From TrEMBL, chains A, B:
Protein name: LysR family transcriptional regulator
PROSITE patterns: HTH_LYSR
Domain HTH lysR-type intervals: 7-64
Keywords, in A-Z order: DNA-binding, Transcription, Transcription regulation
InterPro entries: LysR-type_TF_proteobact-type, LysR_HTH_N, LysR_subst-bd, WH-like_DNA-bd_sf, WH_DNA-bd_sf
Signal peptide range: none
Pfam hit, one: HTH_1
Length: 303, 303
DNA sequence: ATATGACATGAGCTAAATTCATGTTTGTGG
DNA sequence: CCACAAACATGAATTTAGCTCATGTCATAT
């Protein structure tokens, strides 16, 4: 029944916090969980051990004798582990020197800048230069850059590629625009203007290919804007619907300036990767930055 | 980035085992995981802490200075926790006295008996009587039984109900029978005999109701057998297809004496619950048995 | 009595951990 | 020196475990 360790570590941590907090609700608060989660966890712990640990006396929470002993063990064990964690943090190898980073314009100016601050703060002896451009491979090979973040494939044997995140695309528009044009399904896009990076509307192909034949819209009314940021502002003003990488409009979606359309349609994704010369990828400063960026991955990139 | 504890406890346990085992593959063996799982876990641990812990020197596994310190902390912390776990196990409150348990015939004689041994062994001072019958509520209310396990609903305010498991049904037959009658879809059942608890075939309604109209079989050739165990033996001999609770044929399915048919069809499930008088549910012996049975839950019941 | 606060419960869902299939690196024997 | 094998890494798909939501129960206060 108990395969490896008799005690389930996450549950113990919950138990430990619960005793300190004094109530399920308070414990849930500290752990950023709901009261329900704490309750489930404690029920499971008591079942797995087969021992009653908590004495629910009406509205006050007590411990059984066994619970008290377990708490003491937790106190000691977690103190040890937390000390070890602090120790690790202090001994985190710090990057130093100079690092020249390249990235695509849109990604670099939004997401990358937004997340570099903590890394810079943690590594005060590191100086970073950013170069935002579309042509990144050349400078990398010429050693004008040490590390680039790009969504193009560069399959060269001298380069080390580290996947960073998948760029997902969204169709979005201003809330008022959706209402005015009654946008419910992709076909409804025929009725209003759409914003495109190019005049011909090829920009939208990525989306159209993901739409089932039945619902294909006719994109007749195209407004070309050759700059993504400008396109976003145009969309916010209600000039039309747009298709952009989700990361570029994370903030607008959150505060409601734009609303995402047709979540069921999933356009093909691009993959952003970090590229570095293999010979230099081993350097501490490069390794640390790579690791830091990969550590962000969840939905910080909107994927 | 690290919300609660800086160190992810399950990953630490993996790290600890890895160092002891000396290799990823060996560690995976001890933890009943794959090598890949260990690799993923360690990669994540090193990323989250931002510290290199393992020195992969070719074919031998070493530790960095930080890794060594972390291992020592683990050693101490886990020793404490394991000791606490042992302590808990020793102080597990034991049931004693006499407990009269009732259960339905089929469930009691198969699954229940199969799983009671460990509980009895762990509680030598407990004497248990089993009563297997279909009429269980009366004896419970009359205090001839202390605790019953039943799939009927007994919504009485004086009773405490504890859900135990969901009884799923399967259609099955002998492998030869399936071949002989070419059973591919439910409609194929028309071509051969089916076993039923009752002569009229109402026993099969539970299944028929889950079959889409298009595929409804005509159950003309019904062989009535008024006992489930006998029905199972009949099916093994190739006398027909049967419909039974999955738990009653777990063993036969495993060793291939019977094969499950139409896994896509999901007949409605019954729920087995433990019922006890509320006034007696608080007693240690009743609580412990309830907890033990609920702890089994996974697929021990075939659901 | 009824309302209120605190925990329990179940179903459904989401996110994380695991596995599968495959690639990469390092040491070994031909 | 090259091919091979052993040990770990990686990505994608899948499974599982844990969380949340909605609701129920119970004890205490009004």
């Amino acid at each position: 029944m108990f395969v490896d360790s008799l005690l389930d570590l996450p549950q113990l941590r919950t138990f430990y916090t619960l005793v300190q907090a004094g109530s399920f609700t308070a414990c849930a608060g500290r752990l950023n969980r709901t009261q329900s989660a704490v309750s489930h966890a404690m029920a499971k712990l008591e079942n797995q051990t087969g021992v009653t640990l908590l004495a629910r006396r009406g509205r006050t929470l007590g411990l059984t004798e066994e619970g008290r002993r377990l708490y003491q063990a937790c106190e000691q064990a977690f103190a040890t582990l937390d000390a070890a964690a602090d120790d690790l943090r202090r001994h985190q190898t710090l990057a130093k020197g100079r690092l020249r980073v390249g990235a695509t314009l849109e990604f670099g100016s939004s997401i990358l800048m937004k997340h570099m601050q903590p890394f810079l703060a943690a590594n005060p002896d590191l100086e970073i230069d950013f170069t935002l451009d579309h042509e990144l491979l050349g400078p990398l090979l010429r050693d004008d850059l040490d590390l680039i973040i790009d969504c193009l494939e560069h399959p060269l044997p001298t380069l080390k590629k580290s996947p960073l995140f998948r760029e997902t695309y969204v169709v979005a528009c201003a809330p008022g625009f959706r209402k005015a044009h009654r946008l419910r399904v992709p076909a409804d896009l025929s009725s209003g203007p759409v914003l495109s990076l190019d005049k011909a509307g090829a920009w939208w192909n990525r989306f159209l290919m993901a739409v089932p034949d039945r619902e294909q819209p006719q994109l007749d009314h195209i407004i070309a804007v050759n700059h993504i940021r400008a396109m976003i502002h145009a969309a916010i003003e209600g000039m039309g619907a747009l298709l952009v990488p989700r990361y570029s409009v994370l903030e607008e979606l959150q505060r409601g300036a734009l609303v995402a359309l047709f979540p069921a349609i999933r356009p093909t994704e691009d993959r952003f990767s970090i590229y570095q010369k293999k010979v230099k990828a081993g350097q501490e400063k490069q390794r640390l930055l790579t690791r830091y960026l990969q550590g962000l991955s969840p939905e910080e990139f909107g994927s």
